[in-house]
Amino acid sequence: MNDRFDDVVVLADHSILLAIPAFLPAFLIAGVVLFIAVRDRRAGADEPAPPHVTDTAPDTDEEN
């Protein structure tokens, strides 16, 4: 490094410890979303949607 600290050896860099508070909420949210997706996937298929009903009634708001 310099003349004063020639015998100092850096054994660890703690920047990863400082980054944990920033990444922890993102990992928690991703974990919850993944858990819900897997749980819903294992639950099976939902009920099929009802068939689409077309509107066959005549329009009553048209003026002749």
UniProtKB/TrEMBL annotation:
Keyword Membrane: yes
Keywords, ordered alphabetically: Membrane, Transmembrane, Transmembrane helix
TM spans (from-to): 16-38
Region (Disordered): 43-64
Record's keyword annotation contains Transmembrane helix: yes
Protein name: Uncharacterized protein
Species per Swiss-Prot/TrEMBL record: Nocardia flavorosea
High-level lineage: Bacteria, Bacillati, Actinomycetota, Actinomycetes, Mycobacteriales
